[in-house]
Design brief:
By secondary structure, the protein is mainly alpha-helical. It contains 12 helices and 2 strands; from the N terminus they run ααααααββαααααα.
């Protein structure tokens, strides 16, 4: 640390702009509630033993990945780093861990892989219920989660290596593959990531959820209308709406970023230079949408379940009454493991199976 210096002098042309403020505020609106929301989901599952199921473990893994994605998101401060000058190992370390987005792509890719795993699990549970040999169970879910993180890490090795501190830069101090200034040096890596984690993952979700909708309403392989109750019919409609929203929100948040960079790698450098300002704004917007997916995930995947809502209420009740006299707390002397012990509607039976 002795060979590290910090220069906060303002560089020419790097003054704070209205655009910087707007995008910082936009990121704040998703980062703060998103971190809280994902943290609540993790807490509920950890403290509620009855929710220690395969699907809830996958949802918790998704919440952990989204939590880290938002926590490490540099969107709140990266515009100010043009004024910061570091030297030595500290510059490289900050670029790789925070400002350069070397770690965040790992958590984003893990979240994408987890979303696809949940979609495939729901497809197998609802459309292919007798293919139990293909399903993840409580015995092997930990190995599945470990594999997701290993794949996420391996997919980002080029990103980690390319993220370095550039002391000569008069603009952003970190070299990043996912930027207008560096993308042309990393075209194979960008094409692989955009195609695999953007296009193919979206197609996987659409295919799985299309098959679920088809089984619900057309082939009737999931439920026959004459064989279900009114409550199950309402749950069926709710499930249909949910899976549609899941696919639409994921595509709306993930595809713009992938399409944007696939456009960049397919066009010539001169066109990019001539339209640099416009493309820079589109880059910021598509990146914001990518991070927004980590904000929407807890709302779509977990908080729609009565088990999670009950767990949240129980946590709130315990916190509100924890400071009251013991005698007055007797009614609240209940373990969180009792929350969710009963699936109170067929909606949860479908969604969390």
């Amino acid at each position: 640390m002795n060979n590290t210096s910090l220069d906060l002098s303002q560089q020419d042309g790097n003054s704070l702009t209205t655009q910087d403020i707007v995008f910082a505020v936009l990121h704040a609106t998703i980062i703060i509630p998103g971190v809280v929301g994902n943290g609540i989901i993790i807490t509920i599952v950890v403290k509620t033993s009855s929710m220690h199921t395969t699907t809830n473990y996958l949802l918790t893994n998704l919440a952990v990945a989204d939590f880290l994605t938002l926590l490490l998101c540099p969107g709140l401060y990266d515009f100010a780093l043009t004024k910061v000058r570091l030297q030595g190992l500290t510059g490289d370390l900050i670029c790789k861990l925070f400002a350069g987005n070397a770690v965040v792509p790992i958590t984003i890719n893990v979240a994408v892989l987890t979303v696809c795993t949940i979609a495939i699990e729901r497809y197998l549970a609802l459309v292919k219920p007798f293919r139990s040999n293909l399903r993840i169970n409580e015995d092997n879910v930990k190995y599945c989660i470990a594999l997701l993180w290993i794949l996420g890490l391996l997919s980002c090795i080029p990103d980690i290596q390319a993220n370095t501190y550039d002391i000569t830069s008069s603009k952003y101090p970190c070299k990043r593959p996912w930027s207008l200034d560096e993308y042309s040096l990393h075209k194979p890596f960008i094409i692989f990531t955009c195609a695999g984690f953007g296009i193919i993952s979206s197609l996987t979700l659409f295919i799985c959820y299309f098959e679920i909708i088809r089984g619900l309403y057309f082939t009737r392989t999931i439920c026959s209308e004459s064989a279900i109750t009114e409550a199950e019919r309402r749950a069926k409609r709710q499930l249909a709406r949910l899976v549609i929203w899941l696919a639409v929100i994921f595509a709306a948040c993930s595809l713009p970023f992938a399409i944007y960079f696939l456009f960049l790698v397919s066009t010539d450098i001169k066109t990019v230079q001539e339209n640099y300002e416009t493309l820079f704004v589109l880059h910021r917007l598509s990146r914001f949408l990518l991070f927004a997916n980590s904000f929407f995930n807890p709302l779509l995947y977990a908080l729609q379940s009565s088990n999670y809502r009950d767990g949240f209420k129980m946590i709130c009740n315990l916190r509100i009454h924890c400071c009251k006299p013991f005698a007055k707390n007797a009614v609240y002397d209940v373990s969180l493991s009792q929350v969710g012990r009963t699936v109170r509607s067929s909606n949860d039976a479908h969604v969390l199976s």
